[in-house]
Specification:
binds magnesium ion, 10 strands, globular, 11 helices, four-stranded antiparallel sheet, binds adenosine-5'-diphosphate, single chain, 22% strand, 317 residues
Amino acid sequence: MTTAPLLSVEQLCVAHRTPRGDVEVVSGINLQLEAGGTLAIVGESGSGKSQTALAIMGLNGPSACLTGRVLFDGENLLTASPARRRALRGARIAMVFQDPMASLNPYLRIGLQLAEVLETHRGASRSAAWAEAARTLDSVRVSAARERLNQYPHELSGGMRQRVMIAMAIIAGPQLLIADEPTTALDPTVQAQILALLDELRRDRGLAILLITHDLGVVSRLCEQTLVMYAGKLVESAPTQQLLSRPRHPYTAALLRARPSMQHPPGLRLDALPGQPPDLRQTMPACRFAPRCRYAQPDCADVPLQFERGVLCRHPL
Ligand SMILES: Nc1ncnc2c1ncn2[C@@H]1O[C@H](COP(=O)(O)OP(=O)(O)O)[C@@H](O)[C@H]1O
Ligand SMILES: [Mg+2]
């Protein structure tokens, strides 16, 4: 018997109305995530990763028009009422962002911010919420958790603030955590600690994790499956180890070449990917990556493409 995935995104498109006309920033994304599973979305800045995540949360803003389906536990979130979506956010689906200071209120003590999540979603009393806040801080390895409850965000280091953000995200016991560049602002040691923490939460709480990052070094530590996005489209999907060792889309291969590695001889220049992603307002070739692709053939620009066997490319590697 097969069980339905926790999250199933089908043919998701996100367009924004702007003064210069409509622009489609996510174009027909499909993805699935099992309960307790891990999935990464990678791609250059501007490829539509955050807009995909925000669509799952229902937070693309008033200029957005969404089509397709976002099924969470079988329920299509794109047709759910705003009240229903608010109830699910935090309680069952939570998100952490790159910059904890953008999400934490600088004027409120940590304990109050954590307790408020529980009071909102669980109707917990202040004292019960406060005790749970301390336990949750403890579980994300914040030292001296009880004392921290009385501190303000600016009193914490960047790594500690990110832990507090993760605590806020998981305190109401969600099944899905979306982490959008959660370690990008942190130095490498702290970055590794946060990734280890996310892995622990997945193991101990059965949390499903959707990790968004531009850094391929990050996905290999945490995620079983990886999706690659380019200019709003899914271009490759594969088990992470396979994607890293045998990329099939030339764009994935180019991202890998541009990645610094421990094996990389010091002083040797990284093979940066030349050119820019396309302007999404302009008419694009059939393969959006073709203008930057070192393997492009004459048919890449004008023969329509199908996502087949995990890759959107006429001439995969
Ligand atoms: N409110 C908006 N209106 C118009 N375009 C937007 C809006 N928000 C994001 N975009 C555009 O959508 C594209 C994808 O953005 P985003 O999902 O944030 O990329 P990523 O997270 O992969 O860096 C970008 O070109 C960005 O400029
Ligand atoms: Mg982003």
